[in-house]
Specification:
The chain has 138 residues and is an alpha+beta fold. It has two domains: 44 residues, no CATH class; 82 residues, Winged helix-like DNA-binding domain superfamily/Winged helix DNA-binding domain (Arc Repressor Mutant, subunit A). Helices cover 39% and strands 22% of the residues. It is built from six helices and nine strands, in the order βαβαβββββαβααβα. The strands form three sheets. It has a five-stranded antiparallel beta sheet. A two-stranded parallel sheet has the order 1-2.
């Protein structure tokens, strides 16, 4: 999760406290909408999550997910996925830097079989992306 502080508190101590409290950026008043957007883009870039073509496309490294077309590409090559596989991939990518339990991912994707819930593993967007990379290319 990215945290930006936009505040009127401009003392050095306040800035240090904000960054120390896991803030990613700290800006004081006055600030413009352009400044807010630029800082947000910078945070997303640093988190290696980019939004392209509006809100419909997510990108992590060379993996792109077009949410409107429901297409996934790695290095430009289309990956055929079922609707369930698409949801299983999309949810962790939309929740970067957050450890998600298997139950959370399965609940979100609509996959609710009790056999799938019995194992206790977790997946971050980075590990899921690595898992989808063929072993020979790692």
């Amino acid at each position: 999760m990215c945290v930006l502080f936009f505040t009127a508190r401009d003392l050095v101590e306040d800035r240090i406290a904000g960054i120390t409290a896991d803030g990613n950026d700290y800006a004081t008043k006055p600030f413009s909408l352009e400044k807010v957007l630029a800082r947000l883009r910078g945070l997303l870039r640093r988190a290696k999550i980019a939004r392209a073509h509006g809100d419909a496309e997510l990108a992590v490294s060379d993996l792109t997910i077009d949410e409107d077309a429901r297409e996934v590409r790695r290095a430009g090559k289309l990956i055929e996925l079922t609707a369930t596989e698409f949801e299983l991939l999309r949810f962790p990518v939309r929740n970067p830097r957050r450890v998600l339990s298997k139950a959370q991912i399965l609940d979100r994707s609509g996959t609710t079989t009790s056999a799938a819930r019995d194992t206790s593993s977790s997946c971050t967007s980075a590990t899921c992306a690595r898992r989808s990379t063929p072993a020979a290319s790692r």
